[in-house]
C-alpha cells in the first residue's frame, strides 16, 4: 500500500509542477490516461482495507463496424479492462453473490466516484466486477473510438459477468445481479433484456431508455457523438432503425427477470420523460417490475448516488430489493450500518 501511495504522490506532484506549455501539449487522451493511472491507485486507498482489488484484461466481440476492413486487426476481438473487487472476509470454500456494475457516462470509465457504493456492496459480501467497456476513457484513442453505445458494449459487460462465473469458484453463478446508473442503467436494462435468466435481478437508476427521444432534447455536440464516422455514422433522422435497436424501450417485451427502476423529476441529464416511456412500455407488455419516480429529490441526476443521509436511505432500499434475490451474507439492517460501511464512522 505504501508503495502505491508513493507512486500516487509522485504522479500528482509531476502533474502539478509540469510547465503549463507542456501540459497544454498533452492530448486529451494522454491526459485521460494519466488521470486513469492516478485513480487506479486511489482504488487501493479507498477500498483496499476491506477488498482485494484487481484489474484484468478481457476480450469482447470484434468491432461492430470496421474503419479499415483490410487492416491486420480487422475482425479481431476487442480487448477491454475490468475491475474486480472481492471482500477480504470471503471463505475460499464458500460461494458468494456477484454484482455486475457497468459504469455511467457516454465516454467515461469506472472510477472512484463509486468508491463508497463499492464499499457498501463489499460490506454485504458481494463480489463486484466492473468493466471499462469499449468507448471508455483512460485507455487512449483506440478504445475511445471503438464506442458502440447501446450495441456491443452490452456484450463486453456480459462477458465480464461470465468471466467471473467461469473463473472464480467463490462466485455463485445462480446469484448474479446487475446494477448501474444513467448509461450504466441503460446497460443494465439491455443485459436483462438480451440475456434473460442470466441475472437474478437488476437495478436501473435514471437509465437512458430511448436514444431516439434523447436526440430530440440533447445538444448538437451530444448528437455528433452518435453521428460521427467512428460510431453510427448517421443521425437518428437518417437511420431510425439503428437508433431504435440501441434503445431499451424497444426491447421491453424481453424482460423476464426482477427489475427495479428509479428516476427523478428534476433529473438534468436523463429527462424523466425517457424513463417514464420505459415504464409505460414495460406496463404495456404486462411485465412485473418495480419502480419509483422521485419528485425533485435533491441531487437531480445523482440524487441516489450522493453522500448524504437521504441518498443513503434510498440506496438501502435498492440493496433490500437486490438482497431479496441475491441473499448476501451480511445485508444492511439500517442506514447507520450502511453509512458505517461506506464512511467507516
From TrEMBL:
PANTHER family, sorted: DIPEPTIDYL PEPTIDASE FAMILY MEMBER 6, SERINE PEPTIDASE S9 FAMILY MEMBER
SUPFAM superfamilies, sorted: alpha/beta-Hydrolases (SSF53474)
Superkingdom field: Bacteria
Pfam families for this protein: Peptidase_S9
Single GO BP term: proteolysis
Domain (Peptidase S9 prolyl oligopeptidase catalytic): residue spans on this chain: 121-327
Taxonomic lineage: Bacteria, Pseudomonadati, Bacteroidota, Bacteroidia, Bacteroidales
Record-linked InterPro entries: AB_hydrolase_fold, Peptidase_S9_cat
Signal sequence, start to end: 1-24
Identification of the protein by name: S9 family peptidase
Keywords: Hydrolase, Signal
Amino acid at each position: 500500500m505504501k508503495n502505491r501511495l508513493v507512486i500516487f504522490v509522485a504522479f500528482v506532484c509531476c502533474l502539478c509542477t509540469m510547465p503549463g506549455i507542456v501540459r497544454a501539449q498533452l492530448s486529451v487522451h494522454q491526459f485521460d490516461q494519466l488521470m486513469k493511472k492516478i485513480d487506479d491507485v486511489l482504488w487501493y486507498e479507498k477500498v483496499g482495507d476491506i477488498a482485494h482489488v484487481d484489474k484484468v484484461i478481457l476480450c469482447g466481440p470484434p468491432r461492430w463496424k470496421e474503419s479499415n476492413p483490410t487492416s491486420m486487426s480487422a475482425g479481431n476481438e476487442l480487448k477491454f479492462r475490468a475491475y474486480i473487487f472481492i471482500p477480504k472476509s470471503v471463505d475460499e470454500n464458500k460461494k458468494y453473490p456477484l454484482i455486475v456494475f457497468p459504469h455511467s457516462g457516454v465516454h467515461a470509465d469506472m472510477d472512484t466516484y463509486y468508491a463508497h457504493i463499492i464499499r457498501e456492496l463489499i460490506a454485504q459480501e458481494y463480489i463486484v466486477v466492473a468493466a471499462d467497456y469499449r468507448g471508455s476513457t483512460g485507455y487512449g484513442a483506440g478504445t475511445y473510438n471503438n464506442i458502440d453505445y447501446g450495441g456491443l458494449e452490452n456484450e463486453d459487460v456480459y462477458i465480464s459477468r461470465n468471466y467471473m462465473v467461469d473463473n472464480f469458484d467463490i462466485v455463485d453463478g445462480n446469484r448474479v445481479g446487475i446494477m448501474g446508473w444513467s448509461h450504466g442503467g441503460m446497460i443494465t436494462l439491455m443485459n436483462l433484456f438480451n440475456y434473460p435468466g442470466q441475472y437474478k435481478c437488476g437495478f436501473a437508476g435514471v437509465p437512458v431508455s430511448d436514444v431516439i427521444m434523447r436526440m430530440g432534447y440533447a445538444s448538437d455536440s451530444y448528437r455528433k457523438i452518435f453521428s460521427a464516422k467512428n460510431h453510427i455514422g448517421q443521425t437518428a433522422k437518417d437511420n431510425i432503425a439503428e437508433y431504435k435497436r440501441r434503445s431499451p424501450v424497444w426491447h421491453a417485451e424481453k424482460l423476464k427477470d426482477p427489475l427495479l427502476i428509479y428516476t427523478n423529476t428534476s433529473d438534468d441529464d436523463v429527462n424523466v420523460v425517457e424513463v417514464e416511456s420505459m415504464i409505460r412500455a414495460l406496463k404495456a407488455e404486462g411485465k412485473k417490475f418495480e419502480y419509483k419516480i422521485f419528485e425533485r429529490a435533491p441531487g437531480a441526476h445523482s440524487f441516489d448516488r450522493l453522500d448524504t443521509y437521504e441518498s443513503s436511505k434510498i440506496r438501502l432500499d435498492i440493496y433490500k430489493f437486490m438482497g431479496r434475490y441475491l441473499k448476501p451474507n451480511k445485508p444492511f439492517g439500517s442506514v447507520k450500518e450502511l453509512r458505517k460501511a461506506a464512511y467507516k464512522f
